[in-house]
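Could you help me review a protein record that somebody else here produced? What it holds is a sequence and that sequence's fold in token form. I have pasted the whole thing underneath without changing anything:
=====
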Amino acid sequence: MSLFNNFFGATPQEETNSKINWLALTSVSQLDEIEDASNSKLVVLFKHSTRCSISRMALRQFENDFESNDQILPYYLDLLNHRDISNEIASKFSVVHQSPQLLIISKEKCIYDASHSDIDAEVIKNYL
């Protein structure tokens, strides 16, 4: 990645190169599905601003440290394209909007949230 991209963000193609099989969160109606799924699996929501270098750094670190598990459903939210969904997440799960932000949803409730440098993939293991 070039120095320019380190400061100003990557292209959408660079955003999709990940070892995590992200589920794209693209509609508010998916939040009901997420709540339902959280009754049997841990749901991880990563809210990312694609133009923010700090958000990109947090995402890359998370992706490097994340260990795939069939008990986890990882969702990715592009905040620039779906701020309405982020607003609904804040309301539905009683969290303050931040970017980047990681939320863990279990039994239809947000049981953990972190932002910026506090985002740590290792924390997920504590909730399995």
Notes: The first strand starts at residue 23 and ends at 24. Residues 67 and 125 are 9 Å apart (CA to CA).
